[in-house]
Amino acid sequence: MASERSARQRRANGEESRRRILDATVEIAGERGYEGTSIKLVSARAGLPASSIYWHFKDKDELIAAVIERSFGAWLEAMTLPEVEPAAVEALEPVELARRRARTLAAQMAKALLDSPDFLRLGLMLALERRPEEPSARTMFLQVRHVAHERVVHAIGELAPDLAPTTARRLATYALAAADGLFIAHEIGGDDVDLLDLFDMHAHALSDTVARLREAQ
Amino acid sequence: MASERSARQRRANGEESRRRILDATVEIAGERGYEGTSIKLVSARAGLPASSIYWHFKDKDELIAAVIERSFGAWLEAMTLPEVEPAAVEALEPVELARRRARTLAAQMAKALLDSPDFLRLGLMLALERRPEEPSARTMFLQVRHVAHERVVHAIGELAPDLAPTTARRLATYALAAADGLFIAHEIGGDDVDLLDLFDMHAHALSDTVARLREAQ
DNA sequence: CCCTTGCTGGAGTGAACGCTACAGGACATC
DNA sequence: GATGTCCTGTAGCGTTCACTCCAGCAAGGG
């Protein structure tokens, strides 16, 4: 490129800087975890000095918590059961319709994970850590996860209303946990692991499990 | 306690010290990840000076890799399909027998995880990290995981010999990934999450999936 | 035109980091 | 009891860490 990004920005721009810092942080923290995220690295990738980071955020703890907070909404949105066209409702048996909706939801989640894996990668690293003084980012991620769990419980209640509430909760725990595992498998295996295929298999497995649990009760 | 652990050990004892260092490291690294594991912390928990650590291990990288290496065997052992009493072989249909064996294997894995969670917790943290210079511990864990994956493929081949090889591989990936996820769910949720129950549900889900895949092909 | 506000730039703090150097104690072998 | 090996204990190396201080600059409002 001939035109260097002109000299320096011509006016102080806090909002833009804050965004750049958070972008840099989510990348680095998603690659190296909490301890591995150094202010110097973030500052270098954001193209801003350390003092700017400390102007926007109280300390490292708050910085990483802010990263989780920012992705909160987008992440939960992917966990919402999508509506279905009325034609399908009429054409299919309820059980078959539920399976189809579960598969759609699974595909939606898989795509969200492929799209921005940094958030969950960081979240899971934080969740696995057990240091004496818990980082606020970990607390925050666990809260997000709790809300996600409630959402899955709700989705199961909608797709399989005849399931006992405690059974639905167990199934939701299983569903969410397996999704985490599939994500990790894809992180490890790269493109050798077909995340969409695995999530589809997962949706089927859950539907099969509902059928089995239904018979059992 | 009146009797202080007497003064200091009376003879140099390398093997014992090495074990103490590795014990301390697996605990700390399992709690705080790679970067969070400082030599000073390990030295304090092992009750030995830093120089002893560096006498036994070349550097931090080798130390953490040694932790993974030591747990290698025990971990793979838990992933071995247990034999089954001949009486059961005769009494049950093949499909029902396969389900029972899968449940036994799942219970065995769940118990191994409850028994010593540090290894997998550390391994998963390492696996999620993506720093430019990969720690040898990560490479080593991925190798262990690869062997584990092969074992699951083999177990599926034994329990469901009619499944196409590629299908068996996909299923093995799914099985192992979900197991990781369930472990994490238990790490997060503590005793609110019944790991044995979830693994049993997983064994059923896999058996159901085999049935479905069998029909599909 | 000055003054406040919002943000950047650079220099630097003490503490913690991984790691090393080296003297010396405990034991085995002779 | 001398000698060599194994391991411990102390001190400290250079580097990086999170974080601070403060001068200075571009806008907006008076």
Automatic annotation (TrEMBL), chains A, B:
Q: Please report a single Pfam family linked to this protein.
A: TetR_N
Give UniProt keywords alphabetically: DNA-binding
HTH tetR-type domain residues:
15-75
Q: Which InterPro entries match?
A: Homeodomain-like_sf (IPR009057), HTH-type_TetR-like_transc_reg (IPR050109), HTH_TetR (IPR001647)
Q: What are the coiled-coil residue ranges?
A: none
Has keyword Transmembrane?
A: no
Is Nuclease tagged as a keyword? Answer: no
Tell me the DNA-binding residue spans: 38-57
What name has this protein been given in UniProt?
A: Helix-turn-helix domain-containing protein
